[in-house]
User: Fold this.
Amino acid sequence: MKISSFKLAAAVSCVALLIASPCFSQSLPRLGVGAKFSTLGIGVEAATAVTKQTNVRGGFNFMSTDREFSKNGIDYSAQLRYRSVEAHFDWFFGKQFHLSPGLVVYNGNRVTGLANVPGGQSFTLGNQTYFSSLADPVTGNATFEFNKRNVSPMITTGWGNLVTRGEGRFSFNIEGGLIFGNSPNATLNLSGNTCVTPSGPCQNIATNPLVQDDIRAEEAKFNTGAAPYNQISNVLKFYPVVSIGIGYRIK
Assistant:
């Protein structure tokens, strides 16, 4: 049975925390769990104390949402999918405030969708305008990955402690920071026939090298951060992380 990279990374993170928990001093809190909502989606995390002022913490995030939109004459039926696994070292200044260097050990955040251009409608690839064939309209699929790398460094700071020290078991947690990402990775695959005018002449996309070059040029706008997509690229290279959640110390 095939196991996704996201599920494998999440499982390894949880097992590592469970193994590490008994290895630390028995006088320290050994396990706390929490749930949160953040700019990475819905999150579940767990932590264990290392010293009186430090914790190790790991968790995973997930969420999916659907959206339909049009860009350059191409209609997309898309799904925004958040899938990521985090690991942190929490260093506390006092009982609640902390600075947390960490890693996104799996980054599967992406947008996937189906592409469609109704027959006779114009659309743009690169800087070239085409028409979708009435007899064989243009269809396809697209993927936009937030990051070319699966692993990225991150830094956060916040208020709250999943493994409270000698206080109540419940905690309120708020956190903010940045993920230091890389360039996005966009792919666009189209099939069908493109035409010079709505009624022709038309040619198959797969055998037309000019159309294939324009498809690659459209992908490159995203991948290189060319205008007007440079703002998207800049945000993904320094992706803001803001979260709010609750925690409970088990033992």
User: Anything to note?
Assistant: The mean pLDDT is 89. The two ends are 35 Å apart (CA to CA). Residues 5-249 form a domain with the Porin fold (CATH 2.40.160). The chain has one domain: 5-249.
